[in-house]
């Protein structure tokens, strides 16, 4: 099923959850996509919108994005994705607690907000958009593999007020690298082959 509101600002709003063993495509043009509770379907495609906000958990096989998806906010406390997820738009991405069982990747210069625990089955590179914490968060690359994978920040890590914590677990074989500054509350380096911070660390 595909819902399209045209090229203009046609909002797509779900006041309750979305469920079913089928695929759903959403194209809101320059409008907003909002889902008030949970989303539990097969594949979810965010074709075009100014913003996409999912208040509850998103549980899908694949989250498919485009260069025109708009901002994506996943506020759920237990989001789950079976296939590899690629965030292809350079607009902001916000992640609540999310398990990327097939891995996750971002487009360069995407501003990323973390508000929970992010787990992946392999390396993750947050590239050059910068990462901001709005809750205590963690990143682990060890789903199905204790050796893990690299965790790379191409720009700084901050939480603005210095009140949130970040834990990093790159497994026994992955490297943690931060290209610029780190300014948060507490930083926990759980496991890694190496940890390299190029800029100032203020914790």
Can I get a quick summary?
This protein has 203 residues and is mostly beta strands.
Description of the molecule:
It is a single chain. This protein is mainly β. Helix content is 0%, strand content 47%. The chain has no helices and 29 strands. The strands form 5 sheets. A 10-stranded parallel beta sheet has the order 2-5-8-11-14-17-20-23-26-29, with no helix packed on it. The chain has a 9-stranded parallel beta sheet with strand order 3-6-9-12-15-18-21-24-27, with no helix packed on it.
| Elements, N to C (H/E) | EEEEEEEEEEEEEEEEEEEEEEEEEEEEE
Provide mean pLDDT, rounded: 97
- What is the overall number of helices? 0
Shape: globular
Helix-strand makeup class: mainly beta
- Gyration radius over CA: 17 Å
Main β-sheet, in a few words? 10 strands, parallel
- The percent of residues in helical segments reads under 10%
Low-confidence stretches: none
Query: Strand order within the widest sheet?
Result: 2-5-8-11-14-17-20-23-26-29
Q: Estimate what percentage of residues fall within beta strands.
A: over 45%
CA distance, first residue to last residue: 48 Å
The total strand number stands at 29
Q: Which keywords apply here?
A:
10-stranded parallel β-sheet, 203 residues, mainly beta, 9-stranded parallel β-sheet, single chain
